[in-house]
Amino acid sequence: MDMEIKLLAVDMDETVVNSRHQMTEQTKLALELAIQKGILVVPVTGRCLEGLPAKIRRMDGVEYFITSNGAKAYDFKEQRILYRRLIPNQTACAILKKCQEEEIGIAIHQEGKCYDNSFLQAAYRYVAYHRDFKAHRVQKDLYEWVRENEKPVEKIQVFSKDEKKLLVLREMLERFVTLEMAVSTSGYIEITQAEANKGKALETLCDSLGISLLEVMAIGDNANDFSMLERVGFPVAMGNAKEELKQIAKTVTTSNDEDGVAKAIYEYLL
Question: Taking the model in full, what pTM does it have?
């Protein structure tokens, strides 16, 4: 490798965790060995801070987190927010109201936590993230709850098996130039503020740490990882990654069910 890697940015779902929604001991050990070598390991995820896998949150040496698809970057050790790009409350309310009119499942990330009041969304999230995902059920109308609390939103998650409903929503969202959409899996759209993506948050974090993006390895699998992989010096696509990521990657590792993250770490960092 031409450049010494100082920071390893890793996506969580379908990357660090396997299809059984678990981080294997082999992957955990590889991440720990990278940390012991002096490499900063930074989880970069679509999840909110509270929704990160327990093994990652408790891993010694993991001090920085990028969450909600880049809406926030945290210095966990110093308890500081390094980067924050949020959806204004009024904009969030307009989206939530439209989703409820179309009977589309919804959830939000706000202040590092996930909130919903939709059975559909709760059921989908259980399938997607299994038991390692924590959410808070809002007992009243979610749109009204967000409108009343007047706080900005990190991310809005929408889910529907009806692609026509999602198309109507996407057409509405395209009128908001201040928003960004990412599709992480079929029937599921993640909405953030336009400057909130994994790549921009990672770039800001690296600037604050005095690390060049050329000294970063990033590993991901899905469309919401593209902005991260396209910026770094050593982009790695998972074996199960979308084709668009494989095309910009320097290398393709094995899948998340074959400890692809561990394989990349052993091959290129240790």
Answer: 0.90
Contact between 8 and 217 under an 8 Å Cβ cutoff? The reply is yes
Domain boundary among 138, 165, 193: 193
Amino acid symbol at 216: V
Compute the C-alpha angle 64/84/169, nearest 5°: 115
Phi, psi of 70 (to 5 degrees): 100, 5
Could you tell me which residues come within 8 angstroms of residue 88 by beta carbon, excluding any fewer than 6 positions away? 152, 178
* CB-CB contact of 220 with 264 (8 Å): no
Are the C-beta atoms of residues 43 and 66 closer than 8 Å to each other?
yes
Domain extent for 127: 89-193
Query: Are 72 and 201 members of one domain?
Result: yes
pLDDT for 201-222, tens place per residue? 999 999 999 999 999 999 999 9
* Structure-token match 């259980």, residue found: 126
CA–CA gap between residue 49 and residue 47 (Å, rounded)? 7
Name the helix (H) or strand (E) containing 171: helix 163-173
Q: Are residues 169 and 219 in the same domain?
A: no
Q: Which stretches does DSSP call E strand in 76-233? A: 80-84, 105-110, 113-116, 136-137, 155-159, 179-185, 188-193, 216-220
Specify if 1 maps to a domain.
Answer: no
Query: Nearest to residue 83, comparing CAs of 180, 203, 214?
Result: 203
Helix, strand, coil percent values for the chain (each to nearest 5): 40, 25, 35
* Whether the predicted pLDDT of 239 surpasses 80: yes
